[in-house]
Structure formats: C-alpha cells, structure tokens
Design brief:
The protein is α/β, with parallel strands linked by helices. It is 20% helix and 26% strand.
Length: 164
Amino acid sequence: MTNEFVLEALSREFPESIISSSEPYGMLTVEVNKDDIKKIIHYLKDSSLEINFLTDVCGIHYPEFPEKEIGVIYHLQNMMTNFRIRIKAFMTRENVEVDSLTELYAGANWMERETFDFYGIKFKGHPDLRPILNMEDLGYHPMLKEYRLEDGTRTDKNDSMFGR
C-alpha cells in the first residue's frame, strides 16, 4: 500500500472533503473538513485499506491563524502492512467540536478526553467527556497558547543564567 494509492482512494470517495495533502517525512498527511472526519476514518477502517488502529488523537493551537486556530490530529495505522496516515482538521475558536470516534475505536475514549482536557476540543457523542489528567475545577485548557510559560512575578530567577 502506498501513499498515492490511499490518497487516490480518499479523493475518489470524498472529493469535497479533502482540503490538502502532503507527505512530511514520508507519512501521508491529509487535511479534511472537520464535519467529515468520522466518515473518512470509518471508511479507512472498514474498507479494503484496513487502517484499523488509532494510534493517537491530539490537538494543536495556532493563535496566529484565526481561521485555523484549533486543530485535531489523528494518527492511524494498518497493523498488517505497517502503513500510517495522519488526518488533520482545523476549526475556528468559536466552533471547537468534532464527532467522537469512540464508536469506531475503544481507545479513542481516553485520547479524546485528554485532547479535551488540554485543548478544549469537544467530541460530539463522547460517553464521558470530562478532564482526565487535570483537576476538573481547573477552569482552563493548559495547552492553549494563551498563558505565559513562566511566572513574570518571580524574583528568584536570574535570566542571564539561562542565556536570556
């Protein structure tokens, strides 16, 4: 199975859903419409492509691009052929919601909770979407680039010792 073969199959099945594709470090990476994520991944799993393992779900935050500020990234793999693919979808900050994949992959449960916890991405249809690693009363999503990396009020640090 090759990147070209899989991309051709996706383009044939979902011509309006594919936004762009690339192959960073040889891995097929496809950006899709966020509303079509579930049906595309369902197709990848149940078609002859047999991409049957959800390796990872994670979020990304690009505050400098308001139209694509929040992204959700899926890494999938065909365990028999060792073929890997990355699916990306971006959304605006006001519309941070995608379909849950818990019906397709049991492992999505934990990964989606983690992504919600750290990025605030809501997964429609998730059976128990609540923080999994942070405290429930934390009140914010710590991986969003909205907070200073360091406490500016600290006086016990000398920046010159850190090359700054």
